[in-house]
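Memo to structure team: turn this sequence into structure tokens by end of day. - J.P.
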Amino acid sequence: MKLKKIHHILIQVGILLITYIVASIYALSPIYDEKYFFLRWIMDHEILFLTIGIVTIFLSIYKGHVAGYFLTIGNVIGIFIGMFLGIEIYNQRVKLITTSMSHDTIWSLRHRYDITIWIICMLISIAIYIIWKKYLSKKKEL
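Reply from structure team:
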């Protein structure tokens, strides 16, 4: 049983490590582009990414490996959806900027939603896990 838990933890850490490596390749590439702002933000705030990895490990140890997988998958999906959808939202909003706009309006149109989307994806994955867990407990009661 203990070996199986370690196996699941290693898989989750491997997934997070691969994600971190891919993000750092994009963010630290010599042809750095402003559109990869989110990946650069993750590299600059890697303690947050590391904290999420540690929370994932603790979830796997104390709540079961399924909880850890939900958070890991939510994290990875959130990073890539946040990056690509964030870039698209940013590009669409920047097109709306005109020279006659106030600085406040321009600043609000240049706001990046990458990080918000990432956090929302992780929260959705946690919510799905909680709903799934409640569904399983009700199913066992029947």
